[in-house]
Every structure is written in structure tokens, then in C-alpha cells.
């Protein structure tokens, strides 16, 4: 499985995946929000901050990262392709792109949210620890932090 940078030619397939999983991403409920997200993805693609995994030409896993904020902004895998190591491969590549001498953050669902079971387990496997409780787009989330200098086991 190859993790690569998403490019303009991937945008339609990328957004098809986003539409499949949008129920797991607060803030993507409306068509307007999806259009705004598309613009964001295109910007990230232009800055080599959009990673993806494809099955042939179909995007089946995506990750957006911010080098400026040293964070994972978005990570999603198509439902039919989960539990195949795609999320782990994306996260591993992203961590190699970020500054490991500083804290790396990501937000995900809280412990009492059933949507959080898989992503929380993934981040913990990569040595992230639970951080602050926050709200994003009016939805309760929790920050996870990878401490500076921590290496994946």
C-alpha cells in the first residue's frame, strides 16, 4: 500500500470519499460546507500537505496535515477498506513529515462517543496521549498529543 501526495487529478475521488464519511466529521453537514472543504483540500494539495492511499485510481484513505501547527487535521478511510492498515500507513507517513522535536496534535471523538473507538485506539498505538477536552463545530472532541521526541514503538 502506497501513501502518496494527493493532486488535482484526485480531487473528485477524494471528495467522493469525504461524502461517504461526512457523518463522522462535524462541520461537513451542508453542501456549502463540502464546497468549503473541497477548497481546503485543493489548497493542501497545492502545498503537499494532502496524503492519500488509492485502490487503482480510487482514493480510499486521506489525511490532511499542517506543518505550521504541527498537527493532523483530518484522517479518513473508506468504510469498505477499514481494518487493512490504511489509517496507520497514512499516520506513519504524516508523522515523518511533521516536526518530531515538537508536540504533534490531533483531535478526535471523546471516549464516550462510539465513533471514537477506532481512531482513539489508532492514536494510542502511535503513542499519542489524551489531552484537552474541546468542541469543534459545536461537537465535543478530545485533543490527542504526541509528545516531542516520542517515537513509535
Give your account of this protein's structure.
By secondary structure, the protein is of the alpha+beta class. The protein is 31% helix and 31% strand. The chain contains 4 helices and 7 strands. It has helices at residues 11-21, 31-46, 86-97, 117-125; strands at residues 3-5, 50-55, 58-66, 71-77, 104-109, 129-136, 139-146. A 4-stranded antiparallel beta sheet has the order 1-2-3-4. Helix 1 (11-21) packs across helix 2. The longest helix has 16 residues, at 31-46. The chain is globular and about 35 Å long. The two termini are 20 Å apart.
Provide a quick synopsis of the model.
The chain is of the alpha+beta class and 153 residues long.
Defining key terms:
alpha+beta, 31% helix, 153 residues
What integer is the average pLDDT? 94
- Quick one: overall form? globular
Strand content: 25-35%
Q: In percent, how helical is the residue content? A: 25-40%
Q: Radius of gyration in whole Å, from Cα?
A: 15 Å
Element order: H for helix, E for strand:
EHHEEEHEHEE
| Major sheet size, sense and barrel closure | 4 strands, antiparallel
State the low-pLDDT regions, or none: none
Q: Say how many strands there are.
A: 7
By secondary-structure content and strand pairing, the structural class works out as: alpha+beta
Q: Could you tell me how far the N terminus lies from the C terminus, measured between alpha carbons in angstroms?
A: 20 Å
Strand order of the largest sheet: 1-2-3-4
Number of helices: 4
